[in-house]
Each structure stands twice: as structure tokens, then as C-alpha cells.
């Protein structure tokens, strides 16, 4: 599925705006609700979403050195420290002020930036019972995923091809077709939900 860079950029902006709108209506205590990211509450996830807007290359490198060059350890420390230092309102303001921020992950381009926001958006919206990103937007994320992403998240589809019922996208090459929504496919392929628990 080929998608123009301008289309992906508009989807990135739309997803950040959508998340900001949902977070604006959160009761204060819901910022402390657990997320799908192990050990992170809503506030840590939002802090992580805003990390690219707050950090500079030299700061990232210094943080990686302190974390023994483990990006996951560095990201965890950053999210926890930022969530402790900023209120929910301040985190929301950071997101709102950076809806059109041009950040792209190294080697990931626009598709990587959209994936970052959509996946971590689900980490928050699923436990809170809030709406997910539109199926078409989720499908753009799925279309950019492949064996490398499945390996990163430790997911084995075991000969299955997951096919969306609400978008024109599928993941996997196996002979057994499993139909589910695009959102459910994304939760499975990112290790958020076991395949046997998907609807």
C-alpha cells in the first residue's frame, strides 16, 4: 500500500489532535490509570508520546549512555521522570503545542511517526474505554509493518494471516486466515494482546 508523504503527515497531525481532544476530557484521577504498557500509567505513556518534542540529539545520546545504550531503559527513565515532574495539564499542553511537530524516528519516516502515535494512543485509550484511531489510520500503520516489527514485539503468528474486517489490510503470510478489526490486529502484532484473546 503506497501512501503519499503528505497524506501520512496529515494523518499524524490528525491523530495527535484526536488524542489531545480525548485527554482534555480526562478526570484528574484517570491520568493515573494503568495503560497497556507494563508499569506505565496514562501519564507515563503521554510523557513518552511527547518525548520527541522535548529532547534534542545530544540529550538523547547522553541519556542512552547513562542507560547502557538500552533505548527501552532510557525511554522508561525519561517517561517516569517527566510524568513525575509535569501535571496532566502540562503534558496535554505539550502534546497540543506539537501537533504539527516534524519529528520522524530514525529510519522510520512518516510511517514510523504515525505508528508511534497510533500504537501508544491505543496504550491509553484501550484501558480507559475511549475510541481508537479510525480504522483507515490504523491500516496505514499495519501496512508499514512486516516481519521485522513482529520480531521486535516478539510476536509469532504461527502460520496465520490476520485480515481486517473494516479496512483493506492484512498482516502475515500464513495459509490460515483470521478475520478481526484493524485495531485488534494492531494490538496483536504489537504484543498488546495475545491472538487467542482477540475478538
Task: Describe what you observe in this structure.
Helix 2 (42-49) packs parallel to helix 6 (88-97). It is built from ten helices and three strands. It has helices spanning 5-24, 42-49, 51-54, 57-66, 71-85, 88-97, 109-128, 135-143, 147-152, 182-189, and strands spanning 160-164, 170-171, 176-180. By secondary structure, the chain is mainly alpha-helical. GO terms for molecular function: isomerase activity; metal ion binding. Pfam families: MDMPI_N (PF11716).
What share of residues is helical? 55-70%
Cα-to-Cα separation, first versus last residue: 25 Å
Instruction: Tell me the major beta sheet.
Output: 3 strands, mixed
CATH fold topology of the largest domain:
Four Helix Bundle (Hemerythrin (Met), subunit A)
Radius of gyration: 17 Å
Q: Please state roughly what percent of the residues sit in beta strands, choosing from under 5%, 5-15%, 15-25%, 25-35%, 35-45% or over 45%.
A: 5-15%
Summed up, the helix count is 10
CATH class of the largest domain: Mainly Alpha
Number of strands: 3
Judging from the principal axes of the Cα atoms, what is the shape? globular
Give the domain tally.
2
Neighbour order of strands in the largest sheet: 2-1-3
Order of helices and strands: HHHHHHHHHEEEH
Mean pLDDT: 93
Query: Which class do the helix and strand fractions yield?
Result: mainly alpha
Proper CATH architecture of the largest domain: Up-down Bundle
Low-confidence regions? none
Quaternary structure type:
single chain
Keywords: Isomerase, Pyruvate
Protein name: Maleylpyruvate isomerase family mycothiol-dependent enzyme
GO molecular function: isomerase activity; metal ion binding
Domain Mycothiol-dependent maleylpyruvate isomerase metal-binding: 13-100
Amino acid at each position: 500500500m503506497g501512501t503519499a508523504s503528505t497524506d501520512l503527515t496529515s494523518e499524524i497531525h490528525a491523530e495527535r489532535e484526536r488524542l489531545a481532544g480525548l485527554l482534555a476530557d480526562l478526570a484528574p484521577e484517570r491520568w493515573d490509570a494503568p495503560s497497556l504498557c507494563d508499569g506505565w500509567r496514562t501519564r507515563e505513556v503521554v510523557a513518552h508520546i511527547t518525548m520527541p518534542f522535548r529532547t534534542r540529539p545530544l540529550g538523547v545520546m547522553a541519556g542512552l549512555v547513562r542507560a547502557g545504550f538500552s533505548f527501552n531503559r532510557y525511554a522508561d527513565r525519561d517517561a517516569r521522570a517527566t510524568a513525575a515532574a509535569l501535571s496532566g495539564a502540562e503534558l496535554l499542553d505539550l502534546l497540543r503545542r506539537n501537533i504539527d511537530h516534524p519529528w520522524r524516528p530514525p529510519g522510520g519516516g512518516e510511517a514510523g511517526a504515525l505508528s508511534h502515535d497510533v500504537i501508544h494512543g491505543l496504550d491509553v485509550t484501550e484501558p480507559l474505554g475511549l475510541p481508537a484511531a479510525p480504522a483507515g489510520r490504523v491500516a496505514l500503520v499495519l501496512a508499514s509493518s512486516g516481519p521485522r516489527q513482529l520480531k521486535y514485539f516478539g510476536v509469532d503468528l504461527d502460520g496465520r494471516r490476520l485480515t481486517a474486517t473494516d479496512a483493506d489490510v492484512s498482516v502475515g503470510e500464513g495459509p490460515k486466515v483470521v478475520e478481526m478489526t484493524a485495531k485488534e490486529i494492531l494490538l496483536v502484532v504489537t504484543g498488546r494482546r495475545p491472538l487467542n484473546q482477540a475478538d
